[in-house]
Design a protein that fits this description.
Layout: H1 3-27, H2 30-47, H3 54-74, H4 76-80, H5 104-109, H6 112-123, H7 128-135, H8 139-167
Length: 168
Amino acid sequence: MTDNENTALYGFRKYGDTVLRAAYACTGSMEEAEDITQDVFLKLHSSGTEFADDEHMKAWLLRAAINRGRNYRKSFRFSRTSSIEVTNGSELSYDFVYKDDGIREQVAALPQKYSEVIFLYYYEGYNIREISELIGKSSNTVNSLLRRGRAKLRMELEKEDNYGAERV
């Protein structure tokens, strides 16, 4: 095995589920998230990029996943297709456990600029400064996106609660 193969395999084993979750947060589709995850690790394998440490690798992988998620949301394919759930779950070659905490789908349904900062802040534990470096925006912008994303999510959850209460 070459160093690139070792790096890609190591990165996949350590951060595969993290990259998948980031891609899902950006796309809202498990099928697209799986494709993006595969693309990210293929890019890592072929790039020959060297990392200072694991955090550097994780940041590179998340940045690549977020960029691909953004590209997908801008694509013709995103605007002209709808997701058809063929199976109840997704079978992956690694142990990705999708935790349905009741809010994940609503987070993924938010506009991408909000879903990515909420994902990085709450699900990956990055602080505002780190997120600003990852997505290439100022700390003030990230703080505003996080605040607006929370407000939008709160409104969506309240709408859902009100709708559910009316139906009972």
